[in-house]
Write a structure and sequence with these properties.
There is one protein chain. By secondary structure, the protein is mainly α. The protein contains four helices and no strands. It has one domain. The longest helix is centred in the C-terminal third of the chain and has 21 residues. The radius of gyration is 16 Å and the shape is elongated.
């Protein structure tokens, strides 16, 4: 598999997993649970802040693949 096929497959997998009825509900839960749109800072606790930031990173990775613009990627790889 070349890079373009891998990216297209990954986008498809994420959309298939998180854009169906149960997937949408799961994604909403993970977004809240992983503090995707919240502050991860916990005053006085670098460890808790780091933990929260790790959880947020997972939510952002899911969002990144769901929002991935394949048309832009195809244009960039075919130039």
């Amino acid at each position: 598999m070349d890079r373009q096929q891998i990216v297209e497959q990954r986008v498809s997998d994420f959309k298939h997993s998180f854009q169906s009825g149960p997937g949408i509900r799961t994604h909403k839960h993970l977004s809240r649970f992983c503090l995707e749109n919240e502050s991860t800072y916990v005053e006085g606790s670098a460890l808790k802040t780091a933990f929260n930031e790790g959880a947020r990173s997972a939510a952002i990775e899911i969002r990144r693949w769901l929002d991935y613009d394949l048309s832009k990627f195809r244009k960039e790889t075919n130039e």
